[in-house]
Write a structure and sequence with these properties.
single chain, about 260 residues, alpha/beta, Rossmann fold, six-stranded mixed sheet, four-stranded antiparallel sheet
């Protein structure tokens, strides 16, 4: 059984005004695995990620890091966020510096790295996202897709053990989306634990080792991607359809069996 890196236990959270957040949510993140959190808009996916890096604190329940309850004091939060990086769905919520290079370097410099080492991480992250040519550009002059890649580069430059990504492909053109999928696959292969929220079942099928289905602030089911994504009834309960490649595979198999039976 894979070792747990991060765990949510019975999380309850409601937004001011009574908006639904999390309703006793449980989730297990295994070390070195990629977990896709699937569900419709409003299911609580983004709210969960904000709990997993300590931005939000639950009304009840707890988040555990390697089996130990996470702390919310200043030092504990700082240590937590060094290990658990977060990329928000809207990059404008994350970018603030005068240039792309400055923005991406903010995290590494805050880790206390020497300027040369921080600069090396920045160059590496920009190259990985295919945006080295944007290093001196002002983030507010970039397209949405470019901003998104800058935000991801900032998280990658921190080299977190666990990387949380909220709808990572939202707003990206097909070419940028493919580049990002290749990057995420490379991070996973290098041992980074990934947690991504999405309503894109095909993305989950392509990248995830495990899938958690969310409905109304709770986990409907978590398990191996191949098993969960093949369960049509569960997917329907979450307002989702099976992945296209899985459907094509099932259809081809049915046709082959029908021919054999003739």
């Amino acid at each position: 059984m894979a070792e747990l890196s991060l765990e949510a236990r019975a999380l309850v959270f409601r937004w001011p005004g009574g908006g639904r957040g999390l309703e006793g949510l449980d989730l297990a993140v295994s070390r070195g695995r990629t977990l896709a959190v699937l569900g419709p808009n409003g299911a609580g996916k983004s709210t969960l990620l904000l709990h997993l890096n300590g931005t939000l604190r639950p009304e009840s329940g707890e988040v555990r890091l390697e089996g130990t309850p996470a702390g919310y004091g200043r030092a504990a939060l700082s240590a937590w966020r060094r290990r658990v990086g977060l990329v928000l769905q809207d990059p404008d919520d994350q970018l603030f510096a005068a240039s792309v290079a400055e923005d991406v370097s903010f995290g590494p410099l805050n880790l206390g790295l020497p300027p040369d080492e921080a600069a090396g991480r920045v160059s590496e992250a920009l190259a990985a996202l295919g945006i080295s040519d944007l290093a001196e550009r002002a983030p507010h002059h970039l397209s949405f897709g470019q901003k998104k890649r800058v935000a991801i580069a900032g998280a990658v430059a921190m080299r977190p053990e666990i990387l949380l990504l909220d709808e990572p492909l939202a707003g990206l053109d097909p070419r940028s989306g493919l580049r990002l999928r290749v990057l995420l696959a490379g991070l996973a292969a290098a041992g980074t634990t990934l947690v991504l929220t999405t309503h894109d079942v095909d993305l989950a099928w392509a990248l995830a080792d495990e899938v958690a289905l969310f409905v109304a602030g709770r986990t409907l089911r978590q398990g191996p991607a191949a098993e969960v994504l093949a369960d049509r009834a569960l997917l329907a309960e979450a307002g989702l359809e099976p992945p296209l490649l899985l459907e094509l595979g099932v259809s081809s198999r049915a046709e082959a069996l029908a021919r054999l039976g003739r």
